[in-house]
């Protein structure tokens, strides 16, 4: 049996015995004295959940709260996320530009002689008849 007088010392001495009391004592004594951090976390997470954003998945909410905490604690250099977003957008624009250039090259390679009469000329021919 564990006595609260020795607390963790007695609990750690009895770990080889593997009694349920030892596990309980280690869990109780290892718990933080206050729940301020947990309450703060729930408060910050609650600000992300609104009536219009109530379908966020738990992993996405965790990511948002984590990055928000990193930004508040200044663990992320200022402007790093903006630079990342800018670079990502620039790469997407370059890929779209290359895709349009390939599409234009493909249409010009086909040639106009294979295309047949244009819709405008066909409508003009139909109006004359």
Automatic annotation (TrEMBL):
TM ranges: none
Record domain HAT C-terminal dimerisation: where: 24-65
One Gene Ontology term of the molecular function aspect: protein dimerization activity
Top-rank taxon: Eukaryota
Pfam short name (any one): Dimer_Tnp_hAT
Protein name: HAT C-terminal dimerisation domain-containing protein
Organism: Tilletia caries
Organismal lineage: Eukaryota, Fungi, Dikarya, Basidiomycota, Ustilaginomycotina
């Amino acid at each position: 049996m564990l006595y609260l007088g020795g607390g963790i010392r007695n609990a750690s001495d009895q770990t080889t015995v593997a009694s349920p009391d030892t596990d309980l004592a280690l869990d109780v004594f290892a718990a933080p004295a206050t729940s301020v951090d947990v309450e703060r976390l729930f408060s910050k997470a609650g600000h992300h959940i609104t009536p219009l954003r109530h379908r966020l998945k738990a992993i996405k909410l965790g990511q948002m709260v984590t990055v928000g905490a990193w930004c508040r604690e200044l663990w992320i250099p200022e402007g790093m996320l903006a630079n990342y977003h800018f670079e990502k957008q620039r790469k997407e624009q370059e890929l779209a530009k290359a895709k349009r250039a390939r599409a234009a090259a493909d249409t010009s390679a086909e040639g106009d002689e294979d295309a047949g009469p244009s819709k405008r000329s066909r409508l003009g021919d139909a109006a004359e008849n």
